[in-house]
Amino acid sequence: MFGGFGVYADGTMFGLAAGGEVHRKADTAFAETLADLGSQPFAFSRRDRRTGVS
Fold first, then answer.
1. Residue 49, number of CB atoms within 10 A of its CB
2. What's the CA gap between 1 and 47, in Å, rounded?
3. Is residue 9 part of a domain?
4. Which domain of life is it from (predicted)?
5. Which one of 11, 15, 50, 52 is most buried, by most CB atoms within 10 A?
6. 43, 31 in Cβ contact below 8 A?
7. Domains in the chain: how many in total?
8. How confident is the model at residue 2 (pLDDT cuts 50, 70, 90)?
9. How far is CA 52 from CA 10, 11, 28, 30, 44, in A?
10. In a domain? residue 38
11. What is the pLDDT, as a whole number, of residue 19?
């Protein structure tokens, strides 16, 4: 389905490890925390547009 592997806890997938990175979905508050830590929430590019996932 995708290159990488899912990160699970209690049967729920909450992250994706691929390409040497761990990707996480984030709401606004968590996105701010990630930014404070020098990171960013998962987003993808499609048709020359960057799309975030919450």
1. 7
2. 20
3. no
4. Bacteria
5. 15
6. no
7. 1
8. low
9. 25, 24, 11, 13, 7
10. yes
11. 84
Q: Is residue 17 part of a domain?
A: no
Q: pLDDT by residue (tens digit) across 19-47?
A: 888 888 888 898 899 899 998 887 778 88
Q: Write down the pLDDT at residue 4.
A: 87
Q: Which of helix, strand or coil describes residue 51?
A: strand
Contacts for 23 with CB less than 8 Å, ≥ 6 apart:
15, 16, 17, 42
Question: Alpha-carbon distance 36 to 33, whole Å?
Answer: 5
The tokens describing 39, both together, are 């990171």
Does 7 map to a domain?
no
- Which pTM was predicted? 0.59
